Amino acid sequence: MALPDTVSVPRRGPSDARSAAWLMGPAYLWLIITVLLPLAAMFYFSFLSDVPIAGRNWYTTFSNYEAFFQQEFYRTLMWRSLRLGAEVALWCFVIGFPCAYVLAKTIKGRWREALFLLVIIPFWSNALIRIFSWTMVLRGNGILERFLAWLIPGFGSLDLMFTYPAVVIGLVHSYLPYMILTCYISLQTIDDSLVDAARSLGASRLTVLRKVILPLAMPGIVAGAVLIFVPVIGSFMEPRILGGREGTFLGTVIEDQFTAVFNWPLGAALSFLLLACVLIIFAVFQPILRRAS
Amino acid sequence: MASVTVSHVTKSFGNFPALSDISIDFSDGGLYSLLGPSGSGKTTLLRLIAGFSFPNTGEIHIGGSAVERLPVEKRNIGMMFQNYALFPNMSVYDNVAFGLMVRDTNKEEISKRVGDVLELVRLTGYDRRKPHELSGGQRQRVALARAIIFRPKVLLLDEPLSALDKALRLGMQVELKRIQREIGVTTILVTHDQEEALTLSDKVGVLKDGKLLQEGTPREIYERPATAFAASFLGDANLFKGRVVSGALELDGGSCLRSLDVLPEGGTATCAVRPEKISIVADDEVLASDANVMEARLDDIVFAGNSLNYLLHYGDIPLQVFAQNHEAAELVPGQLVKLAWYARDTILVEA
């Protein structure tokens, strides 16, 4: 029973701290070199008037940040990007949660592995190829429209290509695996007997879902939503290729500053404003997020 | 409250027959135990009565109405699970109130009845706790309170005490019986623990390989087991196999055992004798005229505090004899001892 445990008392002391430093050191060094230093450099750039290279005239200024607050345009874009992130996360939940539920609770053994592989495949294919494949599906007289016309003769045209829905479709496809995986993990930890218990107490399937499964799966849902929301609001590839003229978001504008306009300071400032916005959102929702997980 | 009738129920999973032609009556307000080793089909039967799965053939009636095609949520049964299955995200109050909440009971009514039922299981004041802040025994009481608060027609208990340690288990057996008596709900309990079945229930059904071997009061089953399996699964039993010669059981070693049961003349038979019914007697002791007597070799003596457990053998038949500590004789392993018991304690059983 409760014998005094004399063997496995962990030794604490200088040697512990030293070995911890040796083990963690490389990872932190790597993070400093690859993440922290470039970020710091970008943060510095965001206060410059021009790209700091030879032959250019540059000085420090707040004008890049002021531009955001002076021009309605940027705030509209910020709002569009946040809305896109929320919508994509919501659709991923609507599509991904039932899928994760079936994987975690209904299917067993080899079939589960096979279906998991299908979930992971979007991760393995190149993002650009994936997006251009969608252009073939969504474009006028493309695969989707032909299929629908074959199904319902005289269906007509959808005009999906270069629209906001097209961007959402592409992004949902890219980020759906995150939601499925995080939901799957949290659903798997729910004991089946809890569902049995709720049913024995007279709960309908919908009540079981609302009162037992969803609350217990909330950590996974929140983790998935955060993992999707953050990259989506900064995304530029899907909006550009699938959205065309409709695909202007803060992410695409930032990318333009770096690749087309060559205004790195403005791009950097907009990036940090986006980052700040995300941090503010998380701070506001912190109590809810913490309760959920 | 309602009686439960299971008639000619069979259930198979793929090709495996989990239950074959089971018929049992569970009387109104009684406490019935389904006892059997793992794989005997007792949990399958409980889940059929609950409505988690449906029988292949046969009928189940609860309170007179056929329910075998009704899903669990429509049957109005209370069930307590082996691991209690408390909702970890809810407080004790919300757990207990769940059954009333889904029945759209109003708030005051819920609060009053949760208070009453928590008092019944002696957990008043624990409503705000979460399940992980409770001990095993407390969790069990919450699970019980949750299962009975909506006044179910039947209470089903799946191995209710197996997760508790022994001291707590004895206390909970008494509690469980008290609460069951107080609310008078028909209760069906599944267990593999023979002691639990014997102490708790009014009636016991012994299951093996999907069949009901025997049912009766705990005393009947213990004193008059119908099969060798029932005899050795409920308590310990010495089993004697031999030929029937002129109304007595002749063993390979030459001893003849008498029984009050009618032994099948000319064939082989098996008789069971409970270890505590056998006494170790002195050579010169005067015995009743109908006593069975046998000389066996003592192998070992196991000291168990209040009793002594003698392990012996007769030919190749292993024997056990229990004696109270105060009446134990001074014996040494290896010696021959004389055993005696009444013919009425020699029970004919199916092999």
UniProtKB/TrEMBL annotation, chain A:
UniProt-listed CDD domains: TM_PBP2
InterPro entries: MetI-like, MetI-like_sf
UniProt keywords, alphabetically: Cell membrane, Membrane, Transmembrane, Transmembrane helix, Transport
Species annotation: Halomonas salipaludis
Protein name (database record): Peptide ABC transporter permease
Family note: Belongs to the binding-protein-dependent transport system permease family. CysTW subfamily.
Family matches, as SUPFAM superfamilies: MetI-like
Cellular-component GO terms for this entry: plasma membrane
Pfam families: BPD_transp_1 (PF00528)
Domain ABC transmembrane type-1 as annotated: residue spans: 78-285
UniProtKB/TrEMBL annotation, chain B:
UniProt GO cellular component terms: ATP-binding cassette (ABC) transporter complex
Pfam families: ABC_tran (PF00005), TOBE_2 (PF08402)
GO molecular function, one term: ATP binding
Domain spans labelled ABC transporter: 4-234
Domain of life according to the entry: Bacteria
InterPro entries linked to this entry: AAA+_ATPase, ABC_SmlMolc_Importer, ABC_transporter-like_ATP-bd, ABC_transporter-like_CS, Mo/tungstate-bd_C_term_dom, P-loop_NTPase, Transp-assoc_OB_typ2
Keyword terms: ATP-binding, Nucleotide-binding, Transport
Tagged with keyword Transport: yes
GO BP field: quaternary ammonium group transport
PROSITE patterns per record: ABC_TRANSPORTER_1 (PS00211), ABC_TRANSPORTER_2 (PS50893)
UniProt protein name: Spermidine/putrescine ABC transporter ATP-binding protein
The species this protein was found in: Halomonas salipaludis
Organism lineage string: Bacteria, Pseudomonadati, Pseudomonadota, Gammaproteobacteria, Oceanospirillales
